[in-house]
Specification:
The protein is mainly α. It contains 5 helices and no strands. Helices cover 49% and strands 0% of the residues. α4 runs antiparallel to α5. Belongs to the SELO family.
Length: 132
């Protein structure tokens, strides 16, 4: 969501990967792809500018193909962990949220963020086996 939102609001006259840096988990991840991504970004901006598509139409089209909310492994695992303790509110929240994944929903901003650091190495959040 972060990358899509930033990409749809990109300054097409002067595209810069720094505008998308917030979507990377680590500085090294950003540095590893900086040049390739900048090259791609320049081509993307050129193509969009050549299409003469309005920003409004581009934003709407991107929003219609890219859900704002996606059931991420860490969210599912958090809901499972809470449910095992008898608290099903996270399951209910996720069910409500995912009924309209393309629509911005008030109070649901935390579900648009990057994976939290605590989930980086937690089983069920980042490490899945073939039998998972």
């Amino acid at each position: 969501v972060l990358c899509k939102t930033r990409l749809s609001n990109l300054n097409l006259a002067k595209p810069n990967i720094a505008d998308l840096k917030v979507a990377f988990y680590t500085e090294q991840g950003y540095l590893n792809f900086e040049q390739d991504f900048n090259d791609w970004l320049a081509q993307y901006a050129k193509r969009i500018l050549q299409s003469n598509e309005s920003d409004e139409n581009r934003h709407a089209r991107m929003a219609s193909f890219n859900p704002r909310y996606v059931l991420r492994n860490y969210l599912a695992q958090e809901a499972i962990d809470l449910a095992e303790q008898g608290d099903t509110c996270m399951i209910e929240t996720l069910l409500k949220l995912l009924q309209n994944p393309y629509t911005k929903q008030a109070g649901m901003e935390k579900f648009e963020e990057k994976r939290p650091d605590w989930a980086r190495h937690k089983a069920g959040c980042s490490m899945l086996s073939c039998s998972s």
